[in-house]
Design goal:
The protein contains 14 helices and 18 strands. By secondary structure, it is α/β, with parallel strands linked by helices.
């Protein structure tokens, strides 16, 4: 059982649960674990989003790294995928992002990246926790000339801009159309500055909204978790496409010209079709999670793509991609991994792939968004005893009820049962063609689970 790290790094209320003292220990232990196999002075990059607590957490991390003897390059406010990209490009020993992604401003978090620009695996996080709690930290203290030094390298943001320029410049220039207008919602987060630079450099007709961070307005009724404002803006101003990033810039959702959402499943379909046309979709495969809509399965079947589904979490999507040589994967939430370019979700990269696909096809965003026909989805939480969250797997009556329902669907519906990782709940998710029917079925199974697991 991990004590500090969750499914996406450490994420807590800043300055209380995520105290400077805890951050210092996480930094010192992390520097040791991630650089113990190097024979040179380790170098670690640090980036952050726009939260008020960002500089506080950053200061504590810098102290921990320097105390261990690591050198630090401070990237300033920069998206998560830029840290991943620069960690590889600069051949640093590790990268750190200080962000709580889509959460509200009072939260903050810490995500480690390896020297390959990938989120570190569970085993390394557990090793960092062991070092933190082992009493070793005092021994990991640099003295005299071994103490680390830090330098401000906000100029490295331009390397990330150049990455997009060299990747997309020729194609965008060839197919660009001044009547194609994009509005970008940066969620008052980590992309607020770099998105403007990238889209201006590529000559895309654009407007940026929610790009005035004040430390507390990150994700506040904006960005990929609150699409209402962007939908209204697209329709009212007759835009061709709306783009929404989350607070740390690793997710992207889109809005078509009619104000309809293009979620992660639809984005995977758009990009898979585009890559297939370019003969660049490796093994004709899309990697998604078990939470993807049944409509994505149907799209894959109809287009002769292979769809592989993993546990929920982008790290599990990436693991599957790396293990079997796939280059496209992602989640319904808009966390899309394009492994030929970056080994983590990248909101700006995803949005440019969508724009490239639209411009080259000559179609409207709504036409490409319709590649996936979404099935209605119902999610009901069954309240159970904490120690009985997994008992439904052993109960014959529950198993038979689920099997019977799946037979009734005969491929046109889906049942997914998933215990909550943090609460005494079992989540019952059902997809099917008729919303009223699946609501009744989901309620029936949730009631049965509550009856048998309490």
């Amino acid at each position: 059982m991990r004590r500090y790290f969750g499914t996406d790094g450490i994420r807590r209320i800043a300055n209380t649960e995520l105290s400077p003292e805890l951050v210092y220990k996480v930094a010192k232990a992390g520097a040791y674990v991630l650089s113990k196999h190097t024979d040179k002075t380790p170098t670690i990059l640090i980036g952050r989003d726009t939260r008020l607590s960002g500089t506080l957490i950053e200061s504590a991390m810098v102290a921990g790294f320097l105390s261990y003897g690591a050198n630090v390059k401070l990237l300033g406010v920069i998206p998560t995928p830029a840290v991943a990209y620069l960690t590889r490009k600069m051949q640093a020993d590790a990268g750190v992002v200080i962000s709580a992604s889509h959460n509200t401003f009072e939260f903050n978090g810490i995500k480690y990246f390896s020297n390959k620009g990938m989120k570190i695996p569970d085993e390394l996080e557990e090793e960092i926790e062991d070092v933190m709690d082992s009493g070793k930290l005092d021994k990991l203290t640099a003295v005299s000339e071994k103490i680390g030094v830090s330098e401000i390298r906000t100029d490295l943001l331009n390397e990330y801009v150049y990455f997009f320029r060299k990747t997309f410049d020729d194609n965008i220039e060839k197919y660009n159309n001044p009547d194609f207008k994009v509005v970008i919602d940066t969620a008052n987060g980590a992309t607020y500055e770099v998105a403007e630079k990238v889209f201006s450099t590529l000559g895309i007709n654009h407007v940026v909204i929610n790009n005035k961070p004040n430390g507390i307005n990150i994700n506040e009724n904006c960005g990929s978790t609150h699409l209402g404002m962007l939908k209204d803006y697209v329709v009212k101003n007759k835009m061709s496409l709306g783009i929404a990033y989350d607070g740390d810039g690793d997710r992207c959702l889109a809005i078509d010209e009619n104000g309809e959402e293009i979620d992660g499943d639809k984005i995977l379909a758009i990009i898979s079709q585009y890559l297939k046309q370019q003969n660049k979709l490796k093994k004709d495969t899309i990697v998604a999670t078990v939470m993807s809509n049944l409509g994505l399965n149907k799209y894959a079947e109809q287009n002769k793509f292979k769809l592989i589904q993993t546990k929920v979490g982008d790290r599990y999507v990436l693991e599957e991609m790396l293990k079997n040589g796939y280059n496209l994967g992602g989640e319904q939430s808009g966390h899309i991994i394009l492994l030929d370019y970056n080994p983590t979700g990248d909101g700006i990269l995803t949005s440019l792939m969508i724009i490239q696909a639209i411009l080259e096809s000559g179609k409207k965003a709504s036409e490409l968004g319709n590649l996936v026909q979404k099935y209605p989805q119902v999610l009901i939480n069954a309240k159970v005893s904490s120690d009985k969250k997994y008992d439904y797997e052993k109960n014959e009556e529950i198993k038979q009820a689920i099997e019977q329902l799946e037979k009734e669907f005969s491929g046109n519906g889906r049942v997914l049962i998933r215990p909550s990782g943090t609460e005494p709940l079992v989540r019952v998710m059902i997809e099917g063609k008729d919303i009223k029917t699946i609501e009744e079925k989901a309620r029936k199974i949730a009631d049965l689970i509550e009856k048998k697991c309490n």
